[in-house]
């Protein structure tokens, strides 16, 4: 108890910040892969697949991430499945991110102009070819700004991994605070580090958004 | 592996779940109401000619939107405590959620202001409306009507995010769940039920906002089309 903030504490916080970045990347990659499947399933020609995917999105988007975390970390062990804090956090974030990215990307795929789908069909491309060669390359351009923007949400949401005892930035702050009891100072430092991680990405997403707006305006003039 | 689920012991505790759910809704309603007020004021500040007001509003929005709610809640909770002021957890939770959602609401309403066509303002001036009449009838009301769907989604997300206030022991739904699972050792069943409860709460909120939208925006009701 007692003492003041020293270099050891700061290096502990830095270590936590690294895990925040690591967990964000795990969530982005895991959630991105699963989200891609969700996006494709949402526009599948098979009705049952569409309904299943829509149900998944509705369910996850109607549940707080915190409850998903508790469910995987505390809920699975009584069923005989033990999970580490890192595994619980990764799985929960993947489930959560997949639902949101899946929905964002579905919107992007559907906003590729109708004529592109028709033209691809007119060229006798198969459904897979049409997706891979015509629709997705254009959808990726549309999807870039909102996806970058969502990365900020992912970074912020990794803070909830602290509730299952995973030592990322927020948890590192709590642990140090338990020793020093300087809550205001410590949480301001933690907040500043989160801000430093998130703000550049927020800016980038806005710049990309503006660029896309310009690109589209130019395109519409050219084709007019 | 033998899976043995027992929801009976959990369902027996329904009064506790119900009071938690009511507290969650109360938090959501309080933060929605005050968050809307902050959002309107913030959006006006963001668009004002006063550089100080613009800067302060921008700083507020960027700070809140780029830090996690959990850290904001700790800051408000311990910040108030270190000032020597002791508030009940519910008050702190409501305050933190309001501060949080106010920033998102500011951005959404500002986007609504920006979406008002210039021609409308010129037309209003041409009709010799006063400055306040223009602000209210031509900018504010149509802007809010336009961003109403985005606002309502934000408030539903806020209701879900209020689960984080369980970390400062506000007795809302998630905190009740934590308590019951540690009491009954039925963690899986408890959190499954709570997840379903949140899905139901978000459907209830969506239905409420839909009805409120019909009441608030007569054009939508009469013509059946959004603005």
From TrEMBL, chain A:
One of its GO terms (biological process) is amino acid transport. GO terms for molecular function: transmembrane transporter activity. One of its GO terms (cellular component) is ATP-binding cassette (ABC) transporter complex. Residues 17-205 form the ABC transmembrane type-1 domain. The chain crosses the membrane at residues 12-41, 53-76, 82-101, 184-202. CDD domains: TM_PBP2. Keywords: Cell membrane, Membrane, Transmembrane, Transmembrane helix, Transport. PROSITE patterns: ABC_TM1. The keyword Thylakoid does not apply. The keyword Lipoprotein does not apply. It is a multi-pass membrane protein. It is found in: Cell inner membrane; Cell membrane. Pfam families: BPD_transp_1 (PF00528). PANTHER family: BLR6398 PROTEIN (PTHR30614:SF34), MEMBRANE COMPONENT OF AMINO ACID ABC TRANSPORTER (PTHR30614). Belongs to the binding-protein-dependent transport system permease family. HisMQ subfamily. This is Amino acid ABC transporter permease. It comes from Alsobacter soli.
Automatic annotation (TrEMBL), chain B:
InterPro entries: AA_ABC_transptr_permease_3TM (IPR010065), ArtM/GltK/GlnP/TcyL/YhdX-like (IPR043429), MetI-like (IPR000515), MetI-like_sf (IPR035906). Its main location: membrane. The chain crosses the membrane at residues 20-45, 190-217. It is a multi-pass membrane protein. The keyword Manganese does not apply. One of its GO terms (molecular function) is transmembrane transporter activity. Pfam families: BPD_transp_1 (PF00528). CDD domains: TM_PBP2. GO terms for biological process: amino acid transport. It is found in: Cell inner membrane; Cell membrane. PANTHER family: ABC TRANSPORTER PERMEASE PROTEIN, MEMBRANE COMPONENT OF AMINO ACID ABC TRANSPORTER. Belongs to the binding-protein-dependent transport system permease family. HisMQ subfamily. GO terms for cellular component: ATP-binding cassette (ABC) transporter complex. Residues 21-209 form the ABC transmembrane type-1 domain. This is ABC transporter permease. Keywords: Cell membrane, Membrane, Transmembrane, Transmembrane helix, Transport.
């Amino acid at each position: 108890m007692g003492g003041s903030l020293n270099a050891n504490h700061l290096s502990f916080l830095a270590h936590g910040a690294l895990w925040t970045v690591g967990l964000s990347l795990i969530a982005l990659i895991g959630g991105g892969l699963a989200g891609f499947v969700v996006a494709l399933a949402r526009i599948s020609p098979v009705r049952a697949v569409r309904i299943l995917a829509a149900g998944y999105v509705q369910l996850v988007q109607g549940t707080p991430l915190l409850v998903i975390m508790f469910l995987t970390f505390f809920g699975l062990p009584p069923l005989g499945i033990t999970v580490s804090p890192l595994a619980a956090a990764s799985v929960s974030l993947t489930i959560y991110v997949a639902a949101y990215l899946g929905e964002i990307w579905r919107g992007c795929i559907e906003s590729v102009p109708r004529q592109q789908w028709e033209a691809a069909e007119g060229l006798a491309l198969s459904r897979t070819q049409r997706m891979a060669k015509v629709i997705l390359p254009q959808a990726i351009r549309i999807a870039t700004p909102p996806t970058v923007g969502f990365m900020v949400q992912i970074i912020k949401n990794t803070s909830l991994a602290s509730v299952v005892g995973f030592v990322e930035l927020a948890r590192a702050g709590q642990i140090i605070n338990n020793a020093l009891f300087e809550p205001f100072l410590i949480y301001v430092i933690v907040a500043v580090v989160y801000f430093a991680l998130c703000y550049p990405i927020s800016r980038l997403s806005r710049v990309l958004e503006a660029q896309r707006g310009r690109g589209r305006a130019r395109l519409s003039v050219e084709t007019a | 592996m033998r899976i043995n689920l027992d929801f009976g012991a959990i369902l027996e505790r329904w009064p506790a779940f119900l009071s938690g759910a009511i507290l969650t809704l109360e938090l959501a309603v309080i933060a929605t109401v005050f968050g809307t007020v902050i959002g309107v004021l913030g959006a006006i500040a963001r668009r004002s000619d006063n550089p100080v007001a613009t800067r302060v509003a921008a700083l507020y929005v960027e700070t809140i939107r780029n830090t996690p709610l959990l850290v904001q809640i700790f800051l408000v909770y311990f910040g108030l405590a270190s000032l020597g002021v002791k508030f009940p957890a519910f008050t702190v939770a409501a305050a933190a959620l309001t501060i949080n959602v106010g920033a998102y609401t500011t951005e959404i309403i500002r986007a609504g202001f920006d979406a008002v066509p210039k021609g409308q303002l010129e037309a209003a001036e041409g009709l010799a409306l006063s400055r306040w009449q223009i602000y209210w009838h031509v900018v504010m009301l149509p802007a809010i009507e336009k961003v109403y769907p985005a606002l309502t989604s934000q408030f539903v997300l806020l209701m879900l995010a209020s689960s984080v206030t369980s970390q400062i022991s506000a007795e809302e739904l998630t905190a009740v769940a934590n308590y019951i699972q540690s009491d009954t050792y039925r963690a899986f069943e408890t959190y499954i039920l709570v997840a379903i409860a949140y899905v139901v709460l978000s459907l209830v909120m969506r239905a409420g906002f839909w009805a409120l939208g019909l009441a608030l925006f007569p054009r939508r009701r009469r013509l059946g089309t959004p603005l």
